[in-house]
Design brief:
Layout lengths: L2 E5 L5 H8 L6 E5 L2 H11 L3 E5 L1 E2 L2 E2 H11 L5 E5 L4 H9 L4 E4 L4 H19 L22 H13 L6 E4 L6 H10 L8 E5 L5 H9 L16 H4 L4 E5 L6 H13 L1 E3 L6 E3 L3 E6 L3 H7 L4 H7 L2 E4 L9 H17 L5 E2 L1 H9 L5 H15 L4 E2 L6 H4 L15 H17 L5 H20 L4 H8 L3 H11 L3 H4 L6 H9 L1
Parallel strand pairs: 1-2, 1-3, 3-6, 6-7, 8-13, 8-14, 9-10, 10-13, 15-16
Antiparallel strand pairs: 4-5, 11-12
Helix pairs in contact: 1-5, 2-3, 10-12, 13-15, 17-18, 18-19, 18-20, 19-20
Length: 494
């Protein structure tokens, strides 16, 4: 469980913070002095720190500098009375997340703590690239071995060590933020702040304030000075998602920041210098927007220092099977479901659905399917209705697997292409193709049960094992199953 350290000599503050965080699932520990707080910081290694500006014998600003020497990445939220706000603002310039005004507001505490936990997660959780780390298997590994995804991994490796601005393009739900985090994790700025802002989620005034900050009284509701993300993230990396939705005024200020690394807060005259690396992403056609006059061409050229195109799920081939297997394994554990296998009919529906919402839609639909699950096997009835009723993959025809016309068409294409390439082993290649199809189809029918598949094929189980190895058939990709061969054997003996 994540932990929150509060350093404040006012004992009445602690119960209030515990009450505000009761639904956040975080362990709250407290210290009443700077010395005790630094000891807890070293021993507990908290995920979030709430720090009072005025402490016995020292100030929050002095203590903040010591905190940064112990843990440079822990998000720090200051607590301050109105007359002490300038001290908190000075600390924020050095990298604090935000500050709370006393008397404390419960909802504001909860919001900032949740934001801090998310920032901690983004900076602490490594994004593993399969090309760099083949055996990681972590939840944040980017899953996929298709050629389009291998090109993405190569691009990340090329650009991560550099300081250029990166433009990530791709349809909604393809995982653009994961790519941005991978760039950050493999860059020289790892260990410095990483902040993500969704430009489409905020109206123009709020987005400008979020990015650049504002001065007190600069607009209605601006009752105190606010430090923006670019100022907080000095030395780190900013990820601007959906940058195509940014308003013209914000575009102009972002252009100046890219050119000069300078900006002013909303309603302010002070020019502030910052050093940030900017990664942006969009699912919109920026060239069309430029032609329509809704996106600045000079900003586009600045953002387009290096472009990474994330392929849609429909272009990633067998990555879909890998993703289905990985997500079902992960979500079945999270939801406490005893999933053992996916039926061939359900797998066919999942494979033939076009996934217009890409990986995000796949994750959502598999979660829904597992919530409907009432046994060890995922069958079509458990899949969400919109997937089952998709006209391109009617459930009525799912039991038949690949149709005869389909296999004939595939074989015709294989023969034609090999004839054009001047193959001298066409008979053997065609036999291997047919053998792979038959073995895969039978394994799908038996739900991955190798003993039953061997009986249907008229061969021994040892021969089947040799064939799957020789043909490169992986049982976990044919059907998504949590059973090992030993568990299947035990089940058959029963």
């Amino acid at each position: 469980m994540p932990s929150l350290l509060v350093i404040d000599d006012d004992r009445s503050v602690i119960p209030l913070i515990r009450s505000a965080c009761k639904h956040v699932k975080i362990d709250v520990v407290a210290a009443e002095s700077a010395e005790e707080g630094l000891k807890l910081l070293k021993s507990k290694q908290p995920d979030v720190l709430l720090l009072d500006v005025m402490l016995p014998g020292t100030t929050g600003l002095e203590l903040f500098e010591q905190v940064r020497k112990i843990d440079e990445r822990v998000p720090v939220i200051f607590m301050t009375a109105g007359s002490e706000s300038d001290t908190a603002i000075e600390a924020m310039k050095l990298g604090a997340l935000d500050y709370l005004m006393k008397p404390l507001d419960v909802d504001r505490i909860k919001t900032l703590v949740e934001q801090a936990l998310e920032i901690r997660r983004l900076t602490e959780t490594p994004v593993e690239l399969p090309e760099f780390n083949r055996n990681s298997g972590t939840d944040s590994e980017m899953i996929g071995r298709s050629q389009p995804m291998m090109e993405v991994y190569k691009d990340v490796g090329r650009v991560a060590p550099q300081t250029v601005t990166v433009l990530i393009r791709g349809e909604s739900g393809t995982g653009k933020e994961l790519i941005a985090r991978a760039i950050y994790q493999h860059s020289a700025r790892r260990g410095k702040p990483f902040l993500a802002v969704n430009c489409a989620a905020l109206p123009e005034t709020l987005l400008e304030s979020e990015l650049f900050g504002h001065e007190k009284g600069s607009f209605t509701g601006a009752d105190h000075r606010r430090i923006g993300k670019f100022e907080q993230c000095n030395g780190g990396t900013i990820f601007l998602d959906e940058v195509g939705d940014m308003a013209p005024l914000s575009q102009a200020k972002l252009l100046r920041l890219l050119q000069e690394q300078r900006f002013e807060r909303v309603g302010g005259n002070e020019t502030i210098k910052t050093d940030v690396r900017i990664i942006v992403a969009t699912n919109r056609d920026l060239e069309t927007m430029i032609a329509a006059g809704t996106f600045r061409p000079d900003l586009y050229y600045r953002l387009n220092g290096f472009t990474i195109k994330v392929p849609p799920l429909r272009e990633r081939g067998d990555d879909l099977l890998l993703l289905i297997e990985a997500f079902l394994s992960r979500y079945s554990q999270e939801l406490g479901k005893q999933l053992q296998r996916v039926s061939p009919e359900a797998l066919k529906i999942l494979v033939e659905y076009p996934w217009p919402g890409n990986v995000r839609e796949l994750q959502s639909m598999l979660r829904k399917a597992l919530l409907n699950l009432t046994g060890p096997v995922l069958i079509p009835e458990f899949l969400p209705e919109e997937i089952r009723n998709y006209s391109g993959s009617p459930a009525a025809g799912a039991a038949g697997g690949t149709s005869g016309d389909g296999i004939a068409s595939d074989l015709t294409g294989l023969v034609s292409s090999r004839l054009q390439s001047g193959s001298e082993n066409l008979y053997g290649e065609a036999l291997e193709f047919m053998e792979r199809y038959v073995v895969t189809r039978v394994l799908q029918t038996t739900g991955g049960n190798q003993s039953k598949a061997a009986k249907i094929l008229g061969i021994t189980r040892g021969s089947l094992r040799n064939k799957t190895h020789a043909l490169g058939i992986k049982i976990g990709q044919v059907v998504s199953t949590g059973e090992t061969e030993e568990e299947i054997a035990d089940e058959e003996e029963k």
